[in-house]
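Journal club prep — side note

Before the paper discussion, L.F. wants everyone to see what a predicted structure for a comparable chain looks like in token form. Sequence:
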Amino acid sequence: MDYEVKVIPEQKLGVINCKTPIEDLGVFLSMLMGWVDAEEIETEGEPFIVYFSPRHEVNQGDVVYDVSIVLKQDAEGTDKIRVVDMIENKVLAGKHYGSQDTIMDTYAQLVEIAQANHYDIIGSPKEVLIKNFHNCDDENDFITEIQLPIIEM
């Protein structure tokens, strides 16, 4: 697996906090992107999800997660969408190709890489939806970048 350690700079985010079945993700992603379009907000990169519930349990009822996108400028939030500042952080990043059905295999490989390189995973995983259900019809073509926040030990 190709992976990299990278520093994510301080960013301004549009965020929706969710506690729902993961099947509702599309609704919240549409809500976020609709707000971006309606307010003519410039964004950077693709939308992403941060999981606060264990990733391996996402198909077992309600999940706690954020749906977010990086904003190029400040914006006025809504009752559901918050605008927040995210501090700089270091991540171990690797790409998962294809269906979400096998994404836990990619997580396992990243954890092995972290352990082999003495990286301590210190936070919730982030999945950047590079090519996913919001912009791709064939799940075999999906590309998801998994980012695990780390410190080097």
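L.F.'s comment for the group: Strands lie at 3-8, 11-21, 43-51, 62-71, 82-86, 89-97, 119-121, 126-131, 143-152. Keep this in mind when we get to the figures.
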